[in-house]
Design a protein that fits this description.
about 425 residues; alpha+beta; Beta Polymerase, domain 2; Hydrophobic Seed Protein; two-stranded antiparallel sheet; about 10% strand; metal ion binding
Length: about 425
């Protein structure tokens, strides 16, 4: 497609980097997601450049610069705004295996764009001349809200099976319809995604959950067969429960992502930890998501039962109370609860928050005594410490006025 004039909002640092390369005779264009999003009317800071200059030349021209991915031709250049922009030499693939590509430098921008996954990502913009170069008609696909592969769809997915996940993410985030040939090739390529590493799958899932259109993308995961391939535990949910989860996820904020992760994986119960570990989530992330899931499974206390409210907080812990309440509200939204059910949920949440604000004792750290006090009673550290302190906590949850050192020491003596 011939180039068309159209000024996009490009950071001044990107313009400066482009100008320096162009002045030395190296064709340079902005490419990738920032161009796509700018054409859709949204702004991003992570602009990428493709250039005819080699990485060695880029590093000589810019200081400081960073070897972000030299074997792929990518150099990080720090702009005057303090941000690092990726500058990559024009490339073409010479060998792929579904997970990795062997690339070599190319001579032209068109060769570089031809190796990209979808037409909406194969649009280039010249920051100096304000020209759009769109050889695969990606701009038209954006306007038609269509996701279409560059070239032969089957070949594109066979080159890198991660493109299956990327395609579904783009379709969900931007509300795109997947073009028929692209959809056929995508679903055919789904079995190949089992070859992807847990890290790459995890990164894509997080990107889905952090972006607009997460429920739509997850529904495409299921329709395409990807859910059954990568998350068979979730694919076993019946249609009603799956739909409820998606509606609830839509009701949750995108940040922090742990809320959406917990809601998605909570139905797995104790097996959630195994699934999350398989996806290479960190130990801290696994802990957060599984503990939140456990908190969500704790039935909320009756709004008129303060003691039950304290017992709920003991089980959930104050750390997770607000998140658990938010998840309960989202599930009610997903279930399209009746008005009286919503009012009851609001009353339950209000009672829990009242207990928190009042500072009622609900954890061992809230007790007026600790292990050192038990040592003073002549007790030896061991299992009895935990049993006695738990019993003291039971007592003060029933009657917070007992949370005084003399009263608890007396209770402890009675249990020795």
């Amino acid at each position: 497609m011939e180039e068309r004039k159209s000024a996009l909002d490009v950071p001044a640092a990107v313009v400066e980097i482009t100008r320096r390369l162009e002045e030395r005779g190296y064709a340079t264009w902005a490419v990738g997601g920032a161009v796509r999003d700018a054409l859709l009317g949204s702004s991003r800071t992570d602009w990428d450049l493709a250039t005819a200059a080699t990485p060695e030349t880029v590093r000589k021209l810019f200081r400081p610069s960073y070897p972000i991915g030299l074997r792929f031709g990518t150099v990080g250049v720090r702009g005057r705004d303090g941000l690092v922009y990726e500058v990559t030499t024009f490339r073409r693939d010479i060998e792929t295996d579904g997970r990795h590509a062997v690339v070599e430098y190319a001579d032209t921008l068109d060769e570089d764009l031809a190796r990209r996954d979808f037409t909406i990502n194969a649009i280039a913009y010249h920051p100096l001349r304000h020209e759009i170069h769109d050889p695969f008609d990606g701009r038209s696909d954006l306007q038609r809200r269509l996701l279409r592969c560059v070239g032969d769809p089957a070949r594109r997915f066979a080159e890198d099976y991660l493109r299956v996940l990327r395609g579904l993410r783009f379709a969900g985030r931007y509300g795109l319809e997947v073009e028929t040939a692209t959809w056929t090739a995508l679903t055919t390529a789904v079995p190949g995604t089992s070859r992807l590493s847990g890290e790459r799958v995890r990164e894509e899932l997080i990107k889905v959950l952090e972006a607009p259109g997460a429920p739509a993308a997850l529904e495409l995961y299921r329709r395409s067969g990807l859910l059954a391939e990568l998350f068979p535990e979730l694919d076993r949910l019946d249609n009603e429960e799956w739909g409820r989860r998606l509606r609830a996820i839509a009701d949750l904020p995108r940040d922090p992502v742990r809320l959406r992760l917990a809601l998605l994986f909570e139905p797995l119960g104790e097996t959630a930890e195994e699934t999350l570990s398989r996806l290479r989530f960190s130990n801290a992330e696994v802990r957060d998501v599984t503990e939140l899931g456990a908190a969500l499974r704790e039935p909320l206390p009756p709004p008129d039962d303060v003691k039950a409210g304290r017992r709920w907080l003991r089980a959930v812990t104050p750390e997770w109370a607000e998140d658990a309440l938010r998840l309960q509200a989202a599930l009610a939204e997903g279930w399209d609860a009746e008005e009286d059910e919503r009012r009851r949920l609001e009353a339950q949440a209000a009672r829990v928050r009242e207990i928190l604000e009042r500072g009622d004792p609900v954890t061992l750290s809230d007790l007026a005594i600790d292990g050192n006090d038990l040592k003073e009673l002549g007790l030896e550290p061991g299992p009895d410490f935990g049993r006695i302190l738990d019993a003291c906590l039971d007592a003060v949850i029933e009657d917070p006025s007992l949370n005084r050192r003399p009263a608890l020491l007396e209770l402890a003596r009675e249990m020795t």
